[in-house]
Amino acid sequence: MARHLAQGAELGKTVTHAPEWRVERRLVPYPEAVDAMEARVAAIRAGTAPELVWLLEHPPLYTAGTSADPGELLDPDRFPVFKTGRGGRFTYHGPGQRVAYVLLDLDRRGRDLKRHVWRLEEWVIATLARLGLEARRAPGRIGVWVEGADRREAKIAAIGVRVRHWVTFHGLALNVCPDLEHFSGIVPCGLAAYPVTSLAALGIEASMERIDELLAATFGQVFDDPPIAAYDPAPTRLRSTRFAPS
Question: Is 177 a catalytic residue?
Answer without folding.
Answer: no
